[in-house]
């Protein structure tokens, strides 16, 4: 029983990220169904009701396209932000490696100098 709770918590943590497009789609479809039902039960002639339904369907279609475009732009902006962050991290990583390599090279050179000095001292003592 305790195994189910972490899975529910993980699923709940992931839901907000992926629920926005589904929510918008549900909202638009729900609105379309509501308008359709209202038009059907409205006291109008059949031709007028069909014309109104066509107009509302076109408007709903336009709204869905606009929402999809907005979502696409948001996703593109987010992707560009992630790319920029990744590039910054890569540049910082390269700089860290270069700094570490320079410090290592200095340490090796100092070690060689110290070894040469020690060798010289030992050779002079013998």
Keyword list:
mainly alpha; 2 helices; 94% helix; 0% strand; rod-shaped
Q: Level of helix content?
A: over 70%
Rg calc: 34 Å
**Distance, first to last CA:** 80 Å
Q: Strand-and-helix sequence, N→C?
A: HH
Largest sheet: none
The computed structural class is mainly alpha
Low-confidence stretches: 1-16
Total strands: the figure is: 0
The mean pLDDT is 81
Q: What is the count of helical runs? A: 2
| Beta-strand content | under 5%
Please state the overall shape, judged from the principal axes of the Cα atoms: rod-shaped
Characterization of this structure:
The chain is an all-alpha fold and 126 residues long. The protein has two helices and no strands. The chain is rod-shaped and about 120 Å long. Mean pLDDT is 81; it is low at 1-16.
Helix and strand arrangement:
Layout: H1 4-41, H2 46-125
In short:
The chain has 126 residues and is mainly α. The chain has helices spanning 4-41, 46-125.
